[in-house]
Structures are given as structure tokens and as C-alpha cells.
């Protein structure tokens, strides 16, 4: 983006809470049921029914508020948000308006990689409890729409930021951090394909120093890639409109992944007057200090806290610590491996968890829970590299064997396949002599000052030893021979 424009972005995220039943009824929240078999009389507000608040949904909201350093309101109120839409048959949605359960808070994000990476704190305005609407189905009805009310009444936590983000990259970094956090504290499964975690992005542009521009809201983005593409397109579109002399009209838009463009859903003139008023069937939600203290005592160590501990206690870089704490599964795997291997292996374990292990899981489309190599096995492998039993290259062969179930431990694989590193100079010297005799040109080039020739000779020795020679020993002995 050109430097003569500033971007202002705020996100609203709907996180579906992972309760077994809905927020105001006992109906199931399970995904994938036949249409309309999980819509109770309460969910669609048939005459005579009364909503009853799900305590588990409230506890999850408290957990979230504590994890972001927010104020958990001692008293909050549910309101009826009135609007007509086919998948909201009762004509209103139960939500929170003036008094949300979570107020304020922050999430720190890390944007970019390497030397250009930076941290930024995003302020949250609020997070409030509400029920989801149903779902309109268009594909299978040939000019008509079907309505599935299974989602009606599903508990949501709507999480709203201040307009603190200044690029699509920052918005995606925030969404990823939030996605990881709600799974870390076990309030949402984060399944974006099933609609458990979806974002709305409010985007505006302005010239530096000018007041905030007119925002447009991009609705229902259910992947990080779409979030990035939608925001980038919207930024470019708004700048082009203004530079062409046209004013931006406040509007709600949808992103079309097929075209990569946003399109109008409704303009400001079409916006609903929701006519919020307190729900007469629900008492104010009162959360006392003891309840908050109990939930706080049950919270796990949070990713920001763990990342800092990994830096302070084990000397990991900020990047490594942030990567290892990007998901609770990854963090737990690393901590288990660290417990098995000890603090001395902290850095090599981090490298292998982020490198070889992550690459193999990605290549085979496995989750960490399905890894054939356990944390203890990986720690055992790192220990054999550390004590020079095997080299890094041989370690990859051992890792492959463990992955394929060819041994219970690294030691067993090393013994069975005869992979132990050769460190005895008397065994390595004859190999070096043979390589030097077979490569006189490389010897000449090295003595003429070409360092690459030395590396080529090391490679030939390692190849001749089938990777078993100690690289450090090879380097040392080879330099002595060539120096003589």
C-alpha cells in the first residue's frame, strides 16, 4: 500500500462456545445432524416457553475475560435484538448490548518474521454472550431457500476489537492469535469450516492526520486466507474510489473467494434499527468474586506467559517461543519432550519440533496428536546427537525409522541399524587418505585458497563413511592432513 494512505481495521469475531447444549435450552450443539432435528421449542421461542441460561457458557466467557486481562462484569444484562430474517423465526436474537459480560482487555500479536517482525497490542472493546441464528440453504432448492434451525440457540461469544490494526497482515495475526487462544483455554474448537470461528472485518482508509474514514464491514470470513484477501481488496477498492473523486458509503459487504472481490450486501440506508431492549424472560447475569476466583484458579498457563518462560528459563528466541506456543498441542508436545530430555536439549528440541516434525506432519496431513514419534522418543534422539553418538544427518534416518515404527527408541534403531557415529581417528584417517588420493584437483584448489574445495572434500569423506564419521573429527583431521 502507498505511504500516503493509512488503513484502520477492527475485527468482530464469533466464537462458538464448546458446550454440549445450547445457551438457553437443553438441545444439542453437535455438528452435522439432519436439518431441524436439534431445534427445540425454546430455540424458536414457541408460545409459553422460557429460556434458561447455560452456566457452562458463562464460565467460558469468564475464562476468556480473565485470559485477556479484561473486566468481568459483576452484573450484565441480556437484551432482545429485534430484526426479521428467515432463519430467525422468533423475530429477535438474545444478545447483550449496553452491559456485556467482558469489558476491555488486550491481545498481543506478533507480525511478520525475522528482523522485520514486530509486536503490537490490540485492545478489545468487549466480548458478549449471544445465541446464533439458523442457517439458510440455497444450493439444493432450485430458486428457493431451505431453513435449517439446528444452529438456532447455539452459544456464541462475540469478541470486538478497537480499530487498532493497520494492515491485513496485522488483522490476520490478531485473528490467528485469538483463534489459538480460544482453543488454548478450551472454550471453542476453532473449526472454521464448520463455522465455529468466523470474523467480520471493519475496514476504512484515510490520509495521514485526517479523521477516520467511512468504514465498510466485510461479513462472515471463515479462513485466514480469505480474511487477508478480502481486506487487501477492500483497501485497494476504497483508495481507488476516493482518488477517483467518489465518496465511500458505509455498507455491509461480502467477499467472493471465486473473484477475490467484495460486493455489496446492504447499504447504510438498509441497515436495521435493532430496537434493543432488556429481555423480560431473563434476569440480569450476576457473577460474584468467588466464581471468578474459581475459574481463574482453573486456567492453564497462557501462551504469552509460557512464551516468556521459555525465553527466560531456556534461552529460546522470541520467534521460537511464539511458534512453539502458537497452539496448545504444540506447546504440550514440546514441554513433554523437554521434561524427558532436560533443559540442555531445549534449543535442539525446539528446532526439531518446528522443523523436521512439523514438516513431516504437514506433508502427511496429520495432526500432532497422530504423530508416530512421541515426545520421549524425540528427546531420546536429541540426546544421541548431543553426545555425538550420531550426526544430524544420521538423526534424520533414525527419525524416519521411529516414524515408521522400526524401533521403540532411538538407541534401539541406532543399535539395530549400526548407525553409531565413528569418532575414532584411526578409523577415519584411512578414509581421508583415500579421498585425498582420489581428488588431487580439490586438494590443489584448497591449497590455492578456495574454501569451497575443502567443503567438497569433507562431503566426499562423509559419503565414503556412509555418514557415520563424526563431522567434527573429519574437519579436524582433514585440516591437519592438508596443512601437512
Which tags fit this structure?
484 residues, alpha+beta, Arc Repressor Mutant, subunit A, 3 domains, ten-stranded mixed beta sheet
Quick recap:
The protein has 484 residues and is an alpha+beta fold.
Description:
With 484 residues, the protein is an alpha+beta fold. The chain has three domains: 6-291, no CATH class; 301-417, no CATH class; 425-483, Arc Repressor Mutant, subunit A. Helix content is 40%, strand content 19%. The protein contains 15 helices and 17 strands. It has helices at residues 55-67, 168-184, 224-243, 289-298, 303-314, 318-324, 328-341, 346-363, 375-386, 392-403, 410-417, 425-438, 440-447, 451-464, 471-483, and strands at 6-16, 71-72, 75-76, 79-82, 92-95, 102-103, 106-111, 118-131, 135-137, 146-148, 155-161, 197-206, 216-221, 251-256, 261-267, 277-278, 285-286. α2 runs antiparallel to α3 (224-243) and α12 (425-438) packs across α15. It is elongated and about 95 Å long. The model has no long low-confidence stretch (mean pLDDT 91).
Amino acid at each position: 500500500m502507498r505511504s500516503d494512505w493509512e488503513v484502520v481495521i477492527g475485527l468482530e469475531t464469533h466464537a462458538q462456545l464448546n458446550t454440549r447444549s445450547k445457551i438457553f435450552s437443553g438441545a444439542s450443539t453437535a455438528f452435522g445432524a439432519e436439518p431441524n432435528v436439534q431445534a427445540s421449542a425454546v430455540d424458536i421461542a414457541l408460545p409459553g416457553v422460557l429460556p434458561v441460561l447455560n452456566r457452562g457458557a458463562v464460565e467460558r466467557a469468564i475464562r476468556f475475560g480473565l485470559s485477556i486481562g479484561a473486566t468481568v462484569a459483576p452484573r450484565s444484562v441480556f437484551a432482545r435484538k429485534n430484526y426479521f430474517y428467515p432463519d430467525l423465526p422468533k423475530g429477535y436474537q438474545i444478545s447483550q448490548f449496553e452491559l456485556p459480560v467482558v469489558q476491555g482487555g488486550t491481545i498481543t500479536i506478533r507480525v511478520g518474521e525475522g528482523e522485520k517482525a514486530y509486536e503490537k497490542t490490540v485492545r478489545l472493546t468487549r466480548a458478549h454472550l449471544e445465541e446464533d441464528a439458523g442457517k439458510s440453504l440455497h444450493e439444493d432448492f432450485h430458486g428457493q431457500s431451505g431453513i435449517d434451525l439446528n444452529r438456532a440457540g447455539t452459544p456464541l461469544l462475540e469478541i470486538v476489537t478497537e480499530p487498532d490494526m493497520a494492515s491485513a497482515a496485522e488483522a490476520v495475526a490478531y485473528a490467528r492469535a485469538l483463534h489459538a487462544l480460544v482453543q488454548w483455554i478450551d472454550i471453542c474448537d476453532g473449526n472454521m469450516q464448520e463455522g465455529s470461528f468466523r470474523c467480520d472485518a471493519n475496514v476504512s482508509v484515510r490520509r495521514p492526520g485526517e479523521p477516520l474514514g467511512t468504514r465498510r464491514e466485510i461479513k462472515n470470513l471463515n479462513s485466514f486466507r480469505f480474511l487477508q484477501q478480502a481486506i487487501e481488496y477492500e483497501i485497494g477498492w476504497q483508495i481507488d474510489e476516493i482518488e477517483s473523486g467518489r465518496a465511500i458509503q458505509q455498507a455491509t459487504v461480502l467477499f467472493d473467494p471465486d473473484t477475490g472481490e467484495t460486493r455489496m450486501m446492504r447499504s447504510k440506508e438498509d441497515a436495521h434499527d435493532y430496537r434493543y431492549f432488556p429481555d423480560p424472560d431473563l434476569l440480569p447475569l450476576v457473577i460474584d468474586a468467588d466464581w471468578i476466583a474459581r475459574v481463574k484458579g482453573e486456567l492453564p498457563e497462557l501462551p504469552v506467559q509460557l512464551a516468556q518462560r521459555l525465553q527466560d528459563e531456556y534461552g529460546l528466541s522470541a520467534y521460537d517461543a511464539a511458534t512453539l506456543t502458537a497452539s496448545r498441542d504444540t506447546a504440550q508436545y514440546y514441554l513433554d519432550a523437554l521434561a524427558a530430555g532436560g533443559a540442555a536439549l531445549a534449543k535442539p528440541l525446539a528446532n526439531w519440533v518446528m522443523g523436521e516434525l512439523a514438516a513431516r506432519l504437514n506433508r502427511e496431513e496429520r495432526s500432532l496428536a497422530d504423530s508416530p514419534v512421541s515426545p520421549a522418543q524425540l528427546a531420546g534422539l536429541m540426546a544421541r546427537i548431543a553426545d555425538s553418538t550420531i550426526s544430524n544427518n544420521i538423526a534424520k534416518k533414525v527419525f524416519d525409522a521411529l516414524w515408521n515404527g522400526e524401533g521403540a527408541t532411538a538407541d534401539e534403531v541406532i543399535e539395530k541399524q549400526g548407525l553409531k557415529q565413528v569418532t575414532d581417528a584411526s578409523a577415519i584417517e584411512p578414509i581421508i587418505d583415500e579421498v585425498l588420493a582420489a581428488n588431487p584437483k580439490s586438494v590443489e584448489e584448497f591449497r590455492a585458497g578456495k574454501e569451497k574445495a575443502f567443503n567438497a572434500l569433507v562431503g566426499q569423506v562423509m559419503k565414503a563413511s556412509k555418514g557415520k564419521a563424526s563431522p567434527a573429527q573429519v574437519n579436524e583431521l582433514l585440516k591437519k592432513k592438508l596443512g601437512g
